[in-house]
Amino acid sequence: MSAREWPERHTYLAHALALSALHGPGPWPDGGAPLPDAKPPAEQPFLSEVVFEGIRTHHGAAGDDEADAILDLVARIEALTSGPPDAAALHDAAALEALHDAAAAVSPLSVADVLVRECTERDLDGGRFREVGRWLAENGGRRAAVAVGIVLLGVAGDTRDRSLLLLLGALEDLTLYATVALLRSQPDRDRAVFDLARRVDGWGRIHAVERLAGTGDPEIKGWLLREGYRNGIMNEYLAHLAATTGDLAGALAADPVSDDVIDGAGGILLALCNGGPARDMTDYEDGPVAVERYLVQVGRRPPVLRRMAIVGTLNRSLTDLPWDGAVRAALSARCTGLTDRADWRATLADAVGSDDLEVFRRAIWPATTVGVPIRDRLKHHLPAAPFDMDLWWPLVDDPGDFDEVVELATELLPLDDLATGPGLTLTFCAGPAGILDVVVSRLADHPGTGWPLIRAALSNETIRNRNMALQALAAWPTVPAEVAAAVREAARIEPDDRLRAAMAALLADRG
Fold it and tell me: How far apart are CA 474 and CA 458, in angstroms?
């Protein structure tokens, strides 16, 4: 086999090129999934590699627990890059294939830092070292092997590798590695990462934008405020970075301020108030100033439903913020002054009263944040859109008569179709099964009601629905014979050991 006669495989590079031809530079649908080496759906882990690495980099530690594998990789790389000065790094096809397979077997997150250290401590030929990294990146058919190639390009790559790193980095499973490689190999590191950040949306966006913290580039700072903080995971991961690096408070003091900056600012402030997995409003020194300037800016503009909702949410959040009491009171008064303003209320009333479902749906959030009743309007729209979760959530959370909710769900949901028989689906389902879940999950607070809904949930394919049904029944003071018989039959065919035991325990407890 000659140096260029590589075995046939569906490479990540070919996959990325196909996606680029179909969808442009990115973001790509599903972050580029399914990947060339993806397992069949039935064999896929609960958490994908990119999700696992995202959680691990933000909420855990990546260890160097693959010491033997790292030393083996380094030895293979060293052998490929040694030899006479005129020898090519790609002269040994069998050795390259062996390196590919060895790299495919490691966790790239675990080995990356140690691999870089071990390789840089050796006197390896830089040009041939780059060739090896490039070969893995271009010819790899396994995620870990391609990631290792990208890591090597971060050590020995240069401007010639920029396009390749951007292309492969648009696959969100590789964005983290491509981001670090761009930072290490490109002279305009911020601009290179900025280019990649705009090509991704989920964990890839988070990994890339986090490396832009503290940038002084005006274009990047403006993009962070307008849209750069947004991602498909949680905006809370990037909101604080956008507010500080992008100078949110300063941007809101400008005259004029564009609508896209206003709307970006609203999203950032909302995420900061939500709190969560990253730094939030309590960590934002300019928070009071930014909120005040945001309120001034939206007050100068015609009322917009989303801005009403953000102002209402900010007002509710002020109570829990550790700011000076007088400052919080002044900001709260300004929020209330806006949400009570006649033109704001009129705009909201028109949307709440609309028979256009899309218009009404946009009114739900602002109405709930400022205390405008919408229960009757929800009931009005549900018969025409019985599987619209946006309508059911506020209805089940409404403090009004829950018997009405039970009656409506019993009437509108296809209960016979939902009694599919038990399965092992763990996740929350969309559509009728999800609505059944939402309603039945509240029935424990209303013991003795909703048996038709509970009966359907008890026979639903999702474990969660069956569990919610049991929790509801556990709150009943007594279990009628009809109900006990249904639980007994459900236990007989229940495939989940824990749920089957819980059903038996309920029957034993109620004798």
Answer: 13
3-state secondary structure of 123: coil
| Mean pLDDT of the region 118-130 | 87
Number of Cβ within 10 Å of residue 163's Cβ equals: 9
What's this model's pTM, rounded to 2 decimal places? Answer: 0.88
The Cα–Cα gap between 257 and 60 comes to 40
Check: CB of residue 194 under 8 Å from CB of residue 169.
no
Cβ–Cβ < 8 Å for 406, 450? yes
Cα separation of 392 and 336, whole Å?
28
Instruction: Please give the Cα distance from 135 to 412 (Å, whole number).
Output: 59
Contacts of 404 (CB under 8 A, 6+ apart): 379
DSSP string, 269-333: HHHHHH--SS--GGG-TTHHHHHHHHHHHHHTS---HHHHHHHHHHHHHHTTS-S-HHHHHHHHH
* Greater model confidence, 430 or 17: 17
C-beta separation of 408 from 457 below 8 A? no
Q: Extract the tokens encoding 329.
A: 């009171």
Angle at 414 between CA 412 and CA 418, to 5 degrees: 140
Q: How far apart are CA 441 and CA 460, in angstroms?
A: 14
**CB–CB of 193/208 below 8 Å?**
yes
User: Mind giving me the DSSP string for 350-382?
Assistant: HHHT-S-HHHHHHHHHHHHHHT---HHHHHHHG
**H or E stretch at 96:** helix 93-104
Residues forming a β-bridge with 462: 425
Query: What phi and psi, each to the nearest 5 degrees, are found at residue 462?
Result: -85, 135
Q: What pLDDT score does 57 carry?
A: 63
Across 21-38, average pLDDT: 96
For 125-134, give one letter per residue: b (16+ CB within 10 A) or e: beebbbbbbb
Tokens of 439: 């309603």
